Amino acid sequence: MRNKPRGLAEILLTEGLIEAEALREALKEEKRTKETLHQILTRNGTVSPENLCKALSLQFNLKIVSLSTIKVEEGIISQIPQSMARRHKMFPIEKKDNTITVAISEPGSLPALDNLRVLLGCEIEPALTTEKEINTALDNYYGSDRDLAQVTIEKSEDEEYADAIDTTAVEGEDTPVIRLVGLILMEALRKRASDIHLEPLKDRFRVRYRIDGICQEVLGPPKELQGLIISRIKIMAGINIAEKRLPQDGRIRIKLLEKEIDLRVSTLPGLHGESVVMRILDKATLLIDLRKLGFSVQDQRKLESLITLPHGILLVTGPTGSGKTTTLYAVLNRINQPDRKLITVEEPVEYQLSGINQSQVRPEIDLTFAKILREILRQAPDIIMVGEIRDAETAQIAVSAALTGHLIFSTLHTNDAPGAMTRLINMGITPFLVASSVQGIIAQRLMRKICSNCSEPYTPAPHELMEIGLSLDDISNQEFFRGRGCHRCNQSGYHGRIAIFEMLPVTDEIRNLVIRNAPSTEIKQKARELGMKTLREDGWEKVFSGITTTTEVARVTGSDIE
Questions:
Q1: Does residue 156 carry a pLDDT above 60?
Q2: Residue 552: inside a domain, yes or no?
């Protein structure tokens, strides 16, 4: 602790921050009670918080900071346990080399900084601010008790989930575990996470948030709480808490600040306990405007032409988590008109779309894609969206429906657009029927966008260009950007995501290749001759536009064959 050449009382008086009589009364109260002079003056308001902060700064030779004007590094915040930060009224500001600057509002917090120094294994530089600024910062970054109280569990209006939640458990006592689960959810929403991963390891309980497609570890709760936390989540999701040997699925609907958010919950037994993944389905983040998905003007026109055809199949391909469902939802939203009947079959229904009939696959009662699709055709639809073509039966029905006057939208798991043709043929559909029914294919991936708050120009190294198939000759006079990292993007340099696309309209030339069962490489070569941009080439355009980086293009297209 620092030397104190002058006491607080002397400083307040000599600096003209308090009247002599008021100081005498406060000193008398200090003798009568166990409170410090600082605590008494704070409680009775004799000295303004700003003047008290000034006096403490002089007493302990500490700098004064204003948290409201500082851009705090969120990566630093996660290093200090929330309970410790609130108990000792401390808030981390920045880290330089091996020193973290921590704001405090009273000298009583100084001894706790010594404990923090040991905990983090680095030097701690204290700074002063008012208690109000400390509390505001803690609430903004950790979530306030008032916000936590507004995380409520909603009874779903859907019949399927009507009995999924045990309301007696929800309305029970506000235990620390209940609050902890609420804070985990709050923090995930604040950080724009798409998934929450709770993973029991041998020596700890790991918590990770998937943000912009990348898993980021945060400070996890004590290992001994993992069973209670997982049981709490299982109760909220209507999952059998006694069953720990089998994987289970459930769903939670929470209401936060008048906004409904669905959580898809999946449990998986493991060596050190059950792991839980919660997929966050926030309607507010769902992009259903085709113009905002990232299509180029040329590809946008091609897509608009495809989705207004009277019949045929439009396929969206890509790996899990590449945004295929979002693209299909945007397409449905674009063509959803009162004079058309639209029906979907999904597993599960991720978002409810107004004016569209949505059905859900239920494997537990043998209600499959194929069975629902067969029944949908009796409902006289104009347009059908099939969440995924997984098997030969579903593929056969989809092709038959397309050839009998229906417009079908669906997804496949293939690496590129031409590969979708050979995938259907490998499922058992004859090449002629594939060529006759499929009108267009979109392959896509999701890439992180450069954070607009910290974007800066830079010159990429030659190896960065080589990773995405470019050379110095290809980029003359071309400016490149990257994010240097800031509080808004949690020092990652990225904030948000955008899709890259490979658009393949099926022309007569492409149909001829499919009919003679040409390999996908030959189909791709012909498609490129006809003007198709590959995923990587679309990525180049977004790099040249300052939207993303060469590193991101390499990450998401590295395994693709050009």
A1: no
A2: no
